Each structure stands twice: as structure tokens, then as C-alpha cells.
Amino acid sequence: MRRTQLYLHDDTWKTLHRQAKKRRTSISELVRQAVREKYAGSRADRLEAMQAFVGLWADRTDLPNTTAYVRRLRRGDRLKRIAR
Asked: Which of 2, 12, 42, 76 has the fewest CB atoms within 10 Å of its CB?
């Protein structure tokens, strides 16, 4: 976690202060939560987005056989070379 400093207008600070007291948390936690919701989306939104792209390329016909490609990688000595 990184520390940062914010300048807030008095009315904004008062609103956050009231909410923090009401929720029994800190103003910092309210700001972190708001930033997560605004810019990172909710956990449900992220999960929905991930589920939307699972299997996205499953029906692609312009790609080579991906199963064979993965098996060829696993059969080789690539892992041994990486581990060195």
C-alpha cells in the first residue's frame, strides 16, 4: 500500500467524516473504497467480465491446434531451461 495526500473541500471532508463515523471506519478507507468502485469496478463486475471472456477463442478456426501446441511445450525441455 502506498501513502498519498489529498486536499478536500470542507464540505466534502465533512460528508466523509459523517459517513466514517456512521460506518465506524476511517475516511481513508472510504476514499479507498470509492476509488476501487469507480476505477476498478466492483468484485461482481470484475467476475462478470472475466466470465465473459472465458472460452472466447474456443470456436476460432484461424488459429492452429492450441492443444497440440501446449502439449508440445510440455513435452519439451522448456521448463528445465527456464529453471536454470
From this structure: 2
